[in-house]
UniProtKB/TrEMBL annotation:
One of its GO terms (molecular function) is glyoxylate reductase (NADPH) activity. It comes from the Bacteria. GO terms for cellular component: cytosol. This is Glyoxylate reductase. Belongs to the D-isomer specific 2-hydroxyacid dehydrogenase family. Residues 3-315 form the D-isomer specific 2-hydroxyacid dehydrogenase catalytic domain. Residues 107-284 form the D-isomer specific 2-hydroxyacid dehydrogenase NAD-binding domain. InterPro entries: D-isomer_2-hydroxyacid_DH (IPR050223), D-isomer_2_OHA_DH_cat_dom (IPR006139), D-isomer_DH_CS (IPR029753), D-isomer_DH_CS1 (IPR029752), D-isomer_DH_NAD-bd (IPR006140), NAD(P)-bd_dom_sf (IPR036291). Keywords: Oxidoreductase. PANTHER family: 2-HYDROXYACID DEHYDROGENASE-RELATED, GLYOXYLATE REDUCTASE 1.
Length: 315
């Protein structure tokens, strides 16, 4: 059987797949175009792909003999899951293994934005540090503040765990109340508007779907405190970027930390001009250990499904 891997992934995962299957890999350090994907999927029994591969209806139709699409990410908005289901194709993702890594990045952004780390670094490198000053790069405290978690799933809860160490008060939204989480963290279940009004830091951890597209727009930004800091490590289109750029520029909110963008890898031109936002190139899960585990998990799902067993992480 043939497995098509859309980008170079960890050696271990490829070696593992090679024990069972013929493995074809896109060796270019570049995402394949739709045409290239179409060319490659017709004879494969499994596709191992990334969030940058748009697996739409056309690709799925062309992948006539494919039994599994193993996405090497926890998010799977890049795949038309409904269409895959219609064709009897299993879709899997890589939950859990990236939870701590992504939560670490979200917390780095909380600290980085509040203490203006990137701005201060640029200032220092530019040779502008001539003397210590009492008002030089004044930031905001993190300890004892209120953190609003939009979407207290695995990653949201891991961010909350970190916040406990900073003695933060935690507010959260979630489809349903989570009493175990509340007992563990003293977090308070609130509606979105209350969270937006009362939080000093707001960290987004929802998947992208029709219900979460532009969840944070002009209205929501206008409810936040003027001192609020917004962090997004989930998916770019959850935030209306134009509205956010305006809120940051007009100092309607204090700052933002973004690891994801609406039209990735394109970055809103207004955001680039602003110093009160940290912009990162979608590196939430980017550690050597975690990327290795994600690739291995995707490979294991392929091995299970092509051997006629149930997938470990179906979406
Ligand atoms: C995911 O897994 O969805 C992350 O965004 C990848 O870094």
């Amino acid at each position: 059987m043939n497995v098509f891997v859309t980008r170079v992934m960890s050696k271990e995962s490829i070696e593992y797949l090679k024990q069972y299957f013929n493995v074809k890999i896109n060796e270019k350090e570049k995402t394949l175009s739709k045409e290239e994907l179409l060319e490659n999927v017709s004879d494969c029994d499994a596709i191992m792909c990334l969030l940058t591969d748009i697996i739409d209806k056309d690709i799925i139709k062309k992948a006539g003999r494919t039994k599994i699409i193993a996405n090497c990410a926890v998010g799977y908005n890049n795949i038309d899951v409904e269409e895959a289901k219609k064709h009897g194709i299993v879709v899997t993702n890589t939950p859990d293994v990236l939870t701590d890594t992504t939560a670490d990045l979200a917390f780095s952004l909380i600290l980085g934005v509040s203490r203006r780390i990137v701005e201060a670094d640029s200032y220092t490198r530019a040779g502008l540090f001539k003397e210590w000053g009492p008002t030089l790069f004044l930031g905001q405290d993190v300890a004892n503040k209120t953190l609003g978690i939009i979407g207290a799933g695995r990653i949201g809860k891991a961010v909350a765990k970190r916040a406990i160490g900073f003695n933060m008060k935690i507010l959260y939204t979630k489809r349903n109340r989570d009493e175990t989480f509340e007992n563990d963290t003293s977090a308070k279940f609130v509606d979105l508007d209350t969270l937006l009004k009362e939080s000093d830091f707001i960290s987004i951890h929802v998947p992208l779907n029709k219900g979460t597209y532009h969840l944070i727009g002009e209205r929501e930004l206008s409810l936040m405190k003027k001192s609020a800091i917004l962090i997004n490590t989930s998916r770019g289109p959850v935030v209306d970027e134009e509205a956010l750029a305006y809120a940051l520029k007009s100092r309607r909110i204090w700052g933002a930390g973004l690891d994801v963008f609406e039209k990735e890898p394109e970055i809103n031109k207004e955001l680039i001009k602003l110093s009160n936002v940290i912009l990162l190139p979608h590196i939430g899960s980017a550690t050597i250990e975690t990327r290795g585990k994600m690739a291995m998990m995707a490979a294991q799902n392929i091995v299970e499904v092509l051997n006629g067993r149930a997938p470990i992480n179906p979406v």
